[in-house]
Amino acid sequence: METLKKVLTLAVALAVVSSGYLCTVNGAAESITKKAPSISEFNIYVPKELNERQKDLVEIGRYTANGDLGSLRETIISAIERGTLTPQEVSIAIRQLYSAAGLKQMNAALAAFEQLREERPEFGVDYDKLVPKRVGLSALLGNPTNSNNVAAKIKLDEATAAVKYNTFRIKKPKPQNRNRSRLGKLDRELVAAAALGTRVGKTNAVFASSKKSLTELGLSPQQIEYLENMLAN
Questions:
Q1: Neighbour tally for 219: CB within 10 Å
Q2: Residue 1 burial (10 A CB sphere; 0-12, 13-18, 19+)
Q3: pTM surpassing 0.90?
Q4: Considering the domain boundaries, does residue 145 fall inside one?
Q5: 80 in a domain, yes or no?
Q6: Average pLDDT of 224-231?
Q7: Is residue 78, in this structure, part of any structural domain at all?
Q8: pLDDT tens for each residue of 16-71
Q9: According to the 3-state scheme, what is the secondary structure of the chain?
Q10: Which of 48, 56, 142, 225 could crosslink 79 through cysteines, CB 3.0-4.6 Å?
Q11: 155 within domain boundaries
Q12: Domain span including residue 108
């Protein structure tokens, strides 16, 4: 019995020594808890695409650079109506593209935007006076007894009102950028990168430098790839 105990003790000792030797050889001498990733590492969210505001800025830079003024107008209209950009932000975005897109393209884009603002006063001087368009039952609340008289009254009101009614079906959305007088550094770099990528190509060293700046400003590699895919379409 005593001999059996000695044999078992020796076997256990050999097992412990062997496991320690293997851990040292394999470089696993540190405790498992030290190598386990923290919970915060599992909770890191990496965006894979650009948000709606950033997409609109990319389109403005892209269409300004390639001279597609029709698509530029559509992008501007959509961005202002959805509230991703204000008219002032659109103007600033275009004006800073004199180098990235070229002076001629920038002036053409500005002229197209100014023409749009003349056609749509709510994109210009009346931007802060926007009101929802009266449609459906809301237009009949004034006098429900006679629909013909109500329709005539609405036309008269709209013709004589000091504030012009816009074409929105909903109230003017609140702009995403609280400081509406300027664009942030990332916004400016993004719209310029879109213009550069369109003008000189995605393989150009200048565009590569712009991508590096975007990465330093916080865009993920997936978002950079998304930007390149937008410029390729």
A1: 22
A2: exposed
A3: no
A4: no
A5: yes
A6: 93
A7: yes
A8: 555 555 455 455 444 545 555 565 555 566 678 899 999 999 999 999 999 999 99
A9: CHHHHHHHHHHHHHHHHHHHHHHHHCCCCCCHHHHCCCHHHHCCCCCCCCCHHHHHHHHHHHHHHHCCHHHHHHHHHHHHHHCCCCHHHHHHHHHHHHCCCCHHHHHHHHHHHHHHHHHCHHHCCCHHHCCCCCCHHHHHCCCCCCHHHHHHHHHHHHHHCCCCCCCCCCCCCCCCCCCCCCCCHHHHHHHHHHHHHHHHCCCCHHHHHHHHHHHHCCCCHHHHHHHHHHHHC
A10: 56
A11: no
A12: 52-128+184-232
Neighbours of 84 (CB within 10 A): 20
- At CA 59, angle to CA 99 and CA 111, rounded to 5? 60
Residue 203: per-residue pLDDT: 87
Number of domains composing the chain: 1
145 pLDDT tier (thresholds 50, 70, 90): very low
Q: 3: which 2 tokens?
A: 């001999």
